[in-house]
Amino acid sequence: MSAYTNNVSRNPNIAKLQAGYLFPEVARRRAVHLDKYPDAQVISLGIGDTTEPIPDVITSAMAKRAHDLSTLEGYSGYGAEQGEKKVRAAIAAAFYGSLGIEEGDIFVSDGAKCDIARLQMLFGSDVTMAVQDPSYPAYVDSSVIMGQTGQYQKDSEKYGKIEYMRCNPQNGFFPDLSAVGKTEIIFFCSPNNPTGASATREQLTKLVQFAKENGSIIVYDSAYAMYISDDSPRSIYEIPGAKEVAIETASFSKYAGFTGVRLGWTVVPKELLFSDGFPVAKDFNRIVSTCFNGASNISQAGGLACLSPEGLQAMKQVIGFYKENTNIIVDTFKSLGFNVYGGTNAPYVWVHFLGRSSWDVFSEILEKTHVVTTPGSGFGPGGEGPLHCSSLRIKKIQIETDALSLQIMLETMGNVHHELAAVIYDVASVIKKFDAAELTLIAR
């Protein structure tokens, strides 16, 4: 008996999407692996989820707000769609200081990824877009769903009507803008997910000038700005003229462990105008008011606590822990002789494996070490070959390793992060076989 079908046709844009979204596909393969090895203690260096507990100064504020909702005096229902004014003001003060961004320019949300989709609704289906290659998959996939792209080309592994801006070690992970065609929208992430590279002030100045020359709008993803430890800009608005051409989106997810709490923000400056002179922010406010009832009042209480002096210090400590994890990943792969990028200004490491398929390397490491990474090819055709490793998923790890080698690592790396060192050693023991050269692990 055939299944019943209705008269509603499938959205042809969704039908253009290739395979599954990257991270659910990685999760699916992890689940298959666990079915095969039910007793395996699978360790994740893959998706950028967090493991460190949210600092008490932040959770205490959320708990108080939650309790207040049980009282007549403290109860509140629907809030402002754009976010509570005091939260927006705190974001403006903490992250934008003297850059000219005001609380009225800020839209508080349930996360940067959600705002990317809302921004696509704002732009509509008749725009063209450019994206870093490799890049966070949500940029391309949301463009496909909105109908902004052509068909997927299997030979090039690209969608038609998208400008893929190749970013690799040869160009310092910044695209050759002279080779990029004119588009209305430019997605740009710095520090970058997945490569971990951060753009310099000179590079971002070129990007802003490029957008002005072409009449484009930059969607700038700064979700990892607090990880920056050098003089790289933490906001696109540090660049003169950027308020006229750029939207910035950010999140508390990787600063305060809000991946489950959900809280972020997007900046749409009043200086940003459409071709007819109409303010972009007014249309975005209409999108938000129609499709979103505002971020959770409990989450916003947590966000306000994040931006207190104590909260900012607590977030820096969490970030410091993840940066120590990242250093171990970088040092270990480098000691094996692999080319390693990122890790300085982001919790991500980009490791090159010449001549190997990213998915093949992913599968072999998972099979032999029970460790999950992310194949670089999942971030675009420019990601084929490397693996993406995240330092955010390391919490408590128990894994068998060579005792002597582990002892050396413990003595040289210290006990705080010894479990991560054990995992990296075990992964490295497998992947060094991928290289023809005989390399020796040197604990430094």
Automatic annotation (TrEMBL):
SUPFAM superfamilies: PLP-dependent transferases (SSF53383)
GO biological process assignments: systemic acquired resistance, salicylic acid mediated signaling pathway
UniProt-recorded Gene Ontology molecular function terms: pyridoxal phosphate binding; transaminase activity
Keyword annotations: Aminotransferase, Pyridoxal phosphate, Transferase
Aminotransferase class I/classII large domain: residues covered: 41-381
InterPro entries: Aminotransferase_I/II_large (IPR004839), DapL/ALD1 (IPR019942), PyrdxlP-dep_Trfase (IPR015424), PyrdxlP-dep_Trfase_major (IPR015421), PyrdxlP-dep_Trfase_small (IPR015422)
Top-rank taxon: Eukaryota
One Pfam entry name: Aminotran_1_2
Cofactor: pyridoxal 5'-phosphate
Family to which the UniProt record says this protein belongs: Belongs to the class-I pyridoxal-phosphate-dependent aminotransferase family. LL-diaminopimelate aminotransferase subfamily.
Protein name as it appears in the record: Aminotransferase class I/classII large domain-containing protein
Organism lineage string: Eukaryota, Viridiplantae, Streptophyta, Embryophyta, Tracheophyta
